[in-house]
Amino acid sequence: MNTSEKKKLSIISFSGDFDKLVAAFTLASGSAAVNYEVNIFFTFWGLNAIKKKKGRSFIGKGALAKTFGFLMGGVKNVPLSRFNFFGVSPKLMTFMMRKRNVATLSELIEAAIALNVNLYACEMSMHILGITKDDFIPEIKDVIGVASFLQYSEGGDRIFI
Amino acid sequence: MNTSEKKKLSIISFSGDFDKLVAAFTLASGSAAVNYEVNIFFTFWGLNAIKKKKGRSFIGKGALAKTFGFLMGGVKNVPLSRFNFFGVSPKLMTFMMRKRNVATLSELIEAAIALNVNLYACEMSMHILGITKDDFIPEIKDVIGVASFLQYSEGGDRIFI
Amino acid sequence: MNTSEKKKLSIISFSGDFDKLVAAFTLASGSAAVNYEVNIFFTFWGLNAIKKKKGRSFIGKGALAKTFGFLMGGVKNVPLSRFNFFGVSPKLMTFMMRKRNVATLSELIEAAIALNVNLYACEMSMHILGITKDDFIPEIKDVIGVASFLQYSEGGDRIFI
Fold it and tell me: What is the CATH number of domain B8-160?
C-alpha cells in the first residue's frame, strides 16, 4: 500500500440485510472518522439502503421488476440475516441499539454521508431491477460499473459484505 | 501493491447462491477485461458453479455425501439468497437479465473462462463432500489448499463472496 | 504490501454460520501455518464462536438481549447457512468431517489458538447484545472497536466472512 496517499477502504454492499448494513456502515463511518477515503458500491439487495422511498413501493420498469421492487422494499424493510421473524427482529434490534445508545442504521447512514463517504450505485443491477438514479437518495455520487469501481478502489482494501 | 506487476484480484467463491455467483463472475470478468490477473477459488457451496452435471445427481462417495450432493445440485439449482420461492426466482431473474440484455450466469461463466480467469477448486471441501476433479468442468486449472491459494493470490486483493 | 514485514491477514467473522466459521478458521489456521500474522475480529453472530458456554443459555443484560442470547446459543448451535434442517446438518457435517479425517470446527478453533491467531471481540455488538468479555473463552485477546481493528489489520488483507 502506498503510504504517501490517503488510506482507502472500499465496500461492496451486496447483501442488504439489516445486520450486514449495520456492519458495512459502522466500518465505513469508523474508517472515514480516522481519515480513510471510503467508497461504498451498492449492488443488488444493497441498493435497498439508498432508495428514496424507505417503505415498500412498486418501483421498476415491467411487472416482474415491480414485483421484485415491492418484495425488496426500502431501508425500512431490510430483514435480519437470521431470526428475522417476518421483519419484527430489525425493529427489536433498533430498539436495543437505541436503549444502549448505539447509533441506529439510519443514524449510521447519515453519519457516513456527513463524513463524506462516497456512495455509488451499481449500473448493472439497476438495469436488471429496472430502477434509475431518481429512485435513490440525492447523496449518491454516481452510477458506475465494475471498471470504474476497480479504478476508484485501487490502492486500498476491497471488502464484500 | 507492487505496481510493476499485473494487478491481481482473487475471489473465494463460497456461498454459491445465484445472485452471489452473478456478483462473483461479474467482478471476475470485469476485472479480467481491464487486464487484472483473476483467480477464483471455489469452496463448499461455490463448487456448484463448476460441476459438470448442471442438474441434480447423486455424486459423492458415501450415502451422506450423495444426499448432500443431490440437495446441492449443480449450477441450474443454485438458489437466490433471498426470495428463492423453491427455485422459481433464479429462473425469473435469468428471464429479467435476458430481457435487459444483461449477461446471464452461464454466459458470465463462459466469459470468465474466455478471459482466462483462473479457476481453482478447494481440496478440503471436495474431500468433505466426497467429490473429485472428474465431477468438475475441464476448465478447472487445479485442486488446491489454503497454502497454494495464499501463494497464488499474494500481492493482490482477496474477496470472500 | 510491505515485503519486509510479516504478511498479514485479518478476518471479520460476522456470519457465525457453521460452514462460514469452518471457512474462516481454515483460512486463519492455514495462513498462520505459513507464517502470516492472523487477526480474527468476531462481531455479531460471529461472537457465537467464542462464547464460553457452548450450548444455549440466557446470557446478556435485559429480557430482549437474553432472548437473542438464547436464540443465538453457542458454538454448538451454529446453523449451516443452507439446508440447516433445524440444526441436524451441522452435526451430519461434523460426522462427515470426522469420517474423512478433516479437522472439525472445534479442532480448527483449537488449532487457530495454538498457532497464535489473535482473537478480538467487537465492542459495539457486545454492547448491543448486552454481553461482556466474561462470556467469552479466555483466549480472547481484547475487546476492540473499528479504529483499533483498522490499526491492527493495516498493511494486510481484510476479509469479511
Answer: 3.40.1260.10
